[in-house]
Amino acid sequence: MALLDLPHSHDYFAEMFHSLGIQPTVRFRSTSAGTCRAIAARGLAYTLLNAKPQGVGKDEARRVVRDRLRKGSIRSMFEAGQ
Question: Distance (Å, rounded) from C-alpha 27 to C-alpha 19?
Fold first, then answer.
């Protein structure tokens, strides 16, 4: 995972994962949503962002998948081994 490591975002994701009993493997940390997106776009990790992406670059635009999380979708993703 590429973790958006800002004070509120870090706490938000830590609590979300904890409440689901999930401990993701954080391979990258950044205070930049753009850096997290770039890492994910290059297939190095996945990322979850709690903000709407702005200004996605041309090369990254093909790989960015934006979707609203639904109850149970994160647990399902981890149970599937993604």
Answer: 21
Nearest to 41 by CA among 22, 28, 24, 23: 28
Structure-token pair, residue 76:
């399902």
Domain extent at residue 16: 2-79
Q: In the chain, how many domains are there?
A: 1
Taking Cα atoms as reference points, which of 59, 63, 58 lies closest to residue 47? 63
- Maximum Cα interatomic distance, the chain, rounded to a whole number of Å: 36
Percentage of residues in the chain with pLDDT exceeding 70?
Answer: 61
Residue type present at position 42: R
Average pLDDT, the chain: 77
pLDDT at 23 over 70: yes
CB 41: neighbour CB atoms within 10 A? 17
Collect all residues with Cβ–Cβ distance below 8 Å to 28 and sequence separation of at least 6.
1, 2, 3, 36, 39, 44, 45
